[in-house]
Amino acid sequence: MPCDLILALDAQSPRDVTPALKQLQGTVRWVKIGLEMFTACGPDCVREISGLGFKVFLDLKLHDIPNTVAKSVESVSKLPIQMLTLHTGGGREMMQWAVKAQQQHAPNLLLLGVTVLTSTSAAGLAETGVPDSPEKQVLRLSRLAIDSGLRGLVCSPLEIVPLRAILPADVALVTPGIRPRDAKADDQTRVMTPAEAARAGASYLVVGRPIFKAPDPVAAARAMLAEISAG
Ligand code: C5P
Question: Domain 4-230 has what CATH class?
Answer without folding.
Answer: alpha beta
